[in-house]
Amino acid sequence: MKPTRxxxxxxxxxxxxxxxxxxxxxxxxxxSALITLDMLTAQQGWAMNTAGQILKTTDGGHQWTNAGxxxxxxxxxxxxQDGSFYLHGPTPGGxxxxxxxxxxxxxxxxxxxxxxxxxxxxxxxxHTGNGGRHWTRTTIHRIAPPSGTGLSxxxxxxxxxxxxxxxxxxxxxxxxxxxxxxxxRHRHWHAVFQGTAPNTAGMVFATGAIGILxxxxxxxxxxxxxxxAVTPNGGQSWAFTGDRxxxxxxxxxxxxxxxxxxxxxTTVLDPIVIPRTQNFIVAVLMQKPLPSKTAPLKTWWRLxxxxxxxxxxxxx
Length: 316
Hints:
Layout: H1 3-12, E1 17-18, E2 31-32, E3 34-39, E4 45-49, E5 54-57, E6 65-66, H2 70-81, E7 104-108, E8 111-118, E9 122-128, E10 136-141, E11 151-156, E12 162-169, E13 174-182, E14 190-198, E15 200-205, E16 211-215, E17 227-231, E18 239-240, E19 265-273, E20 280-287, E21 297-304, E22 309-315
Antiparallel strand pairs: 1-2, 3-4, 4-5, 5-6, 7-8, 8-9, 9-10, 11-12, 12-13, 13-14, 15-16, 16-17, 17-18, 19-20, 20-21, 21-22
């Protein structure tokens, strides 16, 4: 997720997508709210709406075209009907607009990736590299450790390099997860890592090699309950900031992120890549449990790569 996407969210709050219209907005038709908006530049961007359409724009959002196809639309609606893929509806006060989704990735103006869970611990991966003219569908079986795909995350840096993190809730608040990859050198999806970690908040890659996994979400266990895992080799090994890199193993949070001491209800948000760099930012909300209406602290961590220098900022 790029900062330009966040700027575009405010613009999208006033937009209504015309039902199943494939082109520009039609305000006289029942609107479909945007649930994902990703502006790559001031003119080019992607979106997804509550009708299950994958949309793209080349004129700053004035007109949108449907980049999906009938087979993809049927798959999205089938997944939404059986409860494995959630199409958010409008909120009581207006339309719900999100800046990202763990199920989609739009790395450039021509490329889109989408994952849809299916029965039997499997997942469908839909992909286009030509702006939606052609889509491919791949099914990955045994995507997560046994007992299902309770959590999943998708990341991509181009038309060839993409990753899926699929996790299952484990013991003592941890998750068991696998990281899958496809690349220009190895185009078949293959598992590159399996481990156990605190609840995961999101995964993102800056290049085909460098990525991070933010761990810990909706937590109240104090300053040692969240961490950033870093990979220098496309997901084959990971390390917490300051730790040695490890292969397939359990990852205890031995290098805690700089959370404030004391009792806080902490929510770790999806990490983002700073445009045109190999550096990352992770946004965090920290709130005192009592009183319940205390204003949260808005915190962020910046991780500079490849030095892995970690910076922290806190604001009221």
